[in-house]
Amino acid sequence: MKLTRFTFCILLVSSVCWTGCEMFANHTDPIAGWQLEFSGQPDPAMEKDYQDYVQALPPEERKYAGMGNYYKDGTGQHALVVEVALNGTWWYHVLIYDKENKRIKVIKYSPGGYRS
Length: 116
Prior knowledge:
Elements: H1 5-23, E1 35-36, H2 44-55, H3 59-63, E2 65-72, E3 78-86, E4 89-97, E5 103-113
């Protein structure tokens, strides 16, 4: 069976379309099972890092960014959530910190939209 350029292009476009649609699908919460931290405020170093992170966002995202919740897990790690409402979609940027309050990871995901 000879694979023509046209057939190859169709297969390529189909796979990109299928993968692209998955890229924008709603994803699960990366800190599911973590507990909301009600007993205190984030460490000042974490707050400064959060503010620096928001300032580094593109202007359109920065305009709609706000602080979400503050979480902890059972191992001493903490997380701050940056919520961005952009073009009908909520985007959560989860900043994860180790026991020394140093950021170790950022996970960006969308839990869904906010308009129908």
